[in-house]
Design goal:
Blueprint lengths: L11 H22 L13 H6 L8 H9 L3 H7 L1 H6 L3 H9 L7 H7 L2 H14 L14
Helix pairs in contact: 3-4, 6-7
Length: 142
């Protein structure tokens, strides 16, 4: 006979959701306290850009989040347009793995969470944001 834990508790997905929420709150507090555009800030630079001189798909993400938290949507769009557009989808991507998805949403959430289309978009974005001519040049972080 398998032993059961007599203590009531949350499923693992709920603990993970709580940890993610705590991480998000901590990140918001950090970005409210520090400006990633200011010289001498404690936030790290992008290691990919520092090593290669090329913009990775995440370059500008910290500055984009900082601008978004401060309500500056044009600057946020200039820093990382892909992340700004994808950000509202992220809570939906977490619904199923955390166990919060209604049964009727699961097929759509599985398609949305399929890594293959995301990989194509992210790789294409990484390539095009490093092209020096218009219209691709506006994809590089401002």
């Amino acid at each position: 006979m398998a032993a059961t834990d007599p203590r009531p508790g949350w499923p693992a997905g709920r603990w993970l959701a709580l940890a993610l929420a705590g991480g998000a709150i901590s990140a918001i507090a950090l970005l409210l306290a520090f400006d990633p555009n200011a010289a001498g800030n404690p936030l790290p630079p992008c290691p990919s850009q520092w090593l290669t001189g090329l913009y990775c798909p995440g370059c500008g993400a910290t500055r984009m989040l900082h601008a978004l938290i401060h309500g500056d949507l044009p600057t946020a769009l200039a820093m990382n347009p892909l992340l700004l557009v994808a950000l509202p989808l992220m809570p939906f991507l977490l619904l199923e793995p955390l166990g919060f998805a209604p049964e009727s949403w699961k097929p759509a959430l599985r398609r949305l969470g399929d890594a293959r289309p995301w990989a194509v978009v992210v790789i294409a974005y990484a390539i095009t944001r490093n092209l020096p001519w218009w219209p691709f040049s506006w994809l590089a972080p401002g």
